[in-house]
């Protein structure tokens, strides 16, 4: 799936318009969803309030699985926000795509490595920062790189790099490949021989759309779970 990119420079820094617009749309969708679900909260939750409370409980459960309750309380909002943003970002390209003159201005932000590498980088910077904040720099270095024994320093250093790569590439690869296959079904099958190929392409497209929704949900869960695991490794004693 080759496509051109519209790039604008701001103070000499290049920005991909499609990535920025797609990420902004995902953020706005998340805000509107939470705004809608959180209106008129009551002591006896019903309907949409049940939904948002279920989502909060779900992401809190991810945090609790990685670190103790007292330690994990401060990360509940992070897990909740990160899960919703990635979930919406994974799904938005399945419902809406805006190609203009070969440039796709609206798609799944997570189908771009720039987005997933940025998210992974922010997560790992946060994890290391929280480790330094809790133990101090010397304690952080000892806990992260010289535990359980100093001889493992090279492996621990390599682990930081592989954590970054796998966190970003797992999300990108799954979402990008899903969109590639959907595009291939439409371009190479549905439009190839009129009704003879268009009709059988419809159920294939629907099936893969449903599968992509499932994969997008799983990848949001995996990303947040690994985020909490990486943070717990920095803020908990080895």
TrEMBL record:
Protein name: ATP synthase subunit a
PROSITE patterns xrefs: ATPASE_A (PS00449)
Similarity comment text for this entry: Belongs to the ATPase A chain family.
NCBIfam families documented for this protein: ATP_synt_6_or_A, PRK05815.1-4
InterPro entries linked: ATP_syn_F0_a_bact/chloroplast (IPR045082), ATP_synth_F0_asu (IPR000568), ATP_synth_F0_asu_AS (IPR023011), F0_ATP_A_sf (IPR035908)
Residue spans crossing the bilayer: 12-37, 75-96, 116-137, 164-186, 206-231
Membrane topology: Multi-pass membrane protein
This protein's UniProt keywords: ATP synthesis, Cell membrane, CF(0), Hydrogen ion transport, Ion transport, Membrane, Transmembrane, Transmembrane helix, Transport
Gene3D superfamilies in alphabetical order: ATP synthase, F0 complex, subunit A (1.20.120.220)
Primary location class: membrane
UniProt-annotated location(s): Cell membrane; Membrane
PANTHER family: ATP SYNTHASE SUBUNIT A, CHLOROPLASTIC
Cited Pfam families: ATP-synt_A
Cited function: Key component of the proton channel; it plays a direct role in the translocation of protons across the membrane.
